[in-house]
Amino acid sequence: MNDPALLELFTCLQKAGFPLGLAEYHLLLEAINAGFGTRDRTSLAQLCSALWVKSQREEQIFQDYFNQIIPERLEEEFFPKETNSTYIELRANQNKQPTRKKYNIIDGIILFLKLGFVGCVVAIASIFFLKKPTSPNENHSIYGTLVFDKASFFVAQFTANEADKTAKIKIIRTKGNYGAVSAILNVSENISEASRVDTTPQVIQFAHGEKVKTIQIPINNNNKAELDFPITLSLSDPQGGVKLDENSVASLTIQDDDGGIFAGLKPFFDNLELLWFTATCIIFMLLFWKLWKIRQTFTIDEALIPETYTNLSKTMLSAEVIRTMADEIQVAKAIRQSDNQLREFPLIVNDLPVTHRQMKQGWRYLRRFSREGPPSELDLAATIQQVAQYGILLNPVLVPRRTNRIELLLLIDTDGSMVPFHHLCEELVDTALRGGRFSQVRVYYFHNCPDEYLYRDRYHLEAEPIDDCLSNLPKARTVCLIFSDAGAARGGLNSRRRRLTKFFLKELGQYVRYTTWLNPVPRARWETTTAHDIAALVAMFELNRQEFYRAIDILRGRTLR
Question: What is the mean pLDDT of residues 152-178?
Answer without folding.
Answer: 76
